[in-house]
Amino acid sequence: MTDDAASPHLLHALWADLHSFAVLWQLALIALCVGAAWYLQRAYERRILEQTSVEDTVRVSIGSIQRMVFPVSALLLLVIGRWALERWQPVGVLNVAVPLLFSYALIRISVYMLRHIFAPGRGRRVWERYITWAIWVGVAIYVVGLWPEVRVLLDGYGLAIGTQRISALIVVQALFLIGLTLLVGLWLGRFIEMRLMGATSLEVNLRVMLSKLTQALLVLAALLIALPAVGVDLTVISVFGGMLGVGIGFGLQKIASNYVSGFIILMDRSVGIGDLITVDNFTGQLTRMTARYVVVRSLSGTEALIPNETIITSTVINHSYTDRRVRVPLPVQVSYRTDLDQATAVMIEAARRHPRVLRDPAPKVLIKQFADSGIDLELGVWIEDPHEGTGNLVSDIYLDVWRAFRQHGIEIPYPQREVRVLDGTPTPPKPAA
Questions:
Q1: 0.70 exceeded by the pTM?
Q2: Which residues contact 155 (CB under 8 A, 6 or more apart)?
Q3: Which of 62, 132, 364, 399 is exposed most, by the fewest CB atoms within 10 A?
């Protein structure tokens, strides 16, 4: 498709072909290409459904491509058919059908990439609508032959920055190419991230670091490819780069610090996904690591977004840094009349009956102190799944200990006070010496 084809003669040729016998061959070719494309899509869909050995995630990813098989295959077949048919007769209908089918395929590809880059939501639907309208408006301008006039109009508005002239046409082309390259770069980054996160032979921190680094490099490469393609000298960007550096130094230093801290966390492996940590008076399981913050989910279900800089600059308690096993203390008080050997045996036996309590290290009872109302004991048990919480564990063991104490007649004391009431007879004063 050239600029010569994008002229009013395109519609004139279409109108002329509609009144001639040649339109039948073109309509037959369109029907044949559409039918063949539909058959290819159905065959591809059946092949995906028959591959029961493929993982579900890969299957869904491959299956979503089938929606692009029809427009892309129909476009390729129609382009080949037009090339063969234009040797014997005019192809005005095909000259209009090809850009329309191209726009349809481009919309399908763009929507496919957006749905693999961004999570479902209103923002993604808005971008899908904007991209669809932009593509259809561009194709309409091309088909009716207004593109030369629009190009001249956009090129007439511009300003000079040094030796470089930036016009509205360059801005529009730059936005299109930057959007296209960024879309492709983000899609590739998402694809690589999915492959890396599926590589179980690598550590989680290394997989996350490689995926984030790959995405950043792909975005930078997309910008470096798009800007020179529209005639923007990269030396012009150095001015904005200097301004951006000053902005980072004064106003965006926290954002830059969090971004760099994120890579430091991934490289030093101080914390990782799945670790139970305590930071900034918040305890929970680390469930997600991003370029700016980490997500820590508490045992009650609430989530805290903690900046990466906080992880670097503050004290972090990693309960599963070298060993995922943690000790859970359960204080119990018994009366002074209790047989301590029997009480400790009952408590240990109650702890061993719980399925989450480890046998090694074994449960153990310690005598903490001789208090006012009784003897303070502490039952210590070890678990290897602290991310599941300790509330239910403590409650179950306490309930079992309570039942065993009642069965063996072991008393749990309560605070007692002895009050002495003196009579009201006044004491006579002592004689002076």
A1: no
A2: 167, 168, 169
A3: 399
Distance, in Å, from the CA atom of 130 to the CA atom of 101, rounded to the nearest integer, reads: 19
Q: State both tokens at 127.
A: 């971008």
Tokens 């003669």 -> residue? 9
The crossing angle, in degrees rounded to 10, of helices 8-18 and 22-50 is: 100
Distance, CA of 13 to CA of 21 (rounded, Å): 13
For residues 307 and 384, is the Cβ–Cβ distance under 8 A?
Answer: no
CA 75 from centre of chain: 34
Whether 211 and 273 have beta carbons less than 8 Å apart is answered as no
Amino acid occupying residue 263: F
Residue type, 285: Q
Q: Do residues 277 and 271 lie in contact, with contact meaning Cβ atoms separated by under 8 Å?
A: yes
H-assigned helices in 147-167: 147-155
pLDDT tens figures, 366-385: 999 998 888 999 999 998 88
- Look at the chain and count its residues: 433
Do 29 and 78 meet the contact criterion of CB atoms below 8 Å apart?
yes
Pull the structure tokens for residue 293: 């913050």
How many CB atoms sit inside 10 A of residue 323's CB? Answer: 9
CA distance 209 to 317: 22
Q: What is the pLDDT of residues 170-222, one digit of tens each?
A: 777 777 787 778 888 877 877 777 777 776 666 666 677 677 777 778 877 77
Give the CA angle between residues 74, 75, 77 to the nearest 5°. 65
Which residues sit opposite 278 in a β-bridge?
283, 317
For residue 282, count other CB atoms closer than 10 A to its CB: 13
Report the 10 Å Cβ neighbour count for 11.
Answer: 15
Contact present, 346 and 404 (Cβ < 8 Å):
yes
What is the rounded CA–CA span in Å between residue 193 and residue 206? 11
Q: What are the two backbone dihedrals, phi and then psi, of residue 305, each rounded to the nearest 5 degrees?
A: -100, 105
Q: Is 149 exposed, middle or buried (0-12, 13-18, 19+ CB in 10 A)?
A: exposed
Spatial neighbors of 352 by CB under 8 A, at least 6 apart, are 359, 362, 363
Helix (H) or strand (E) holding 124: helix 122-143
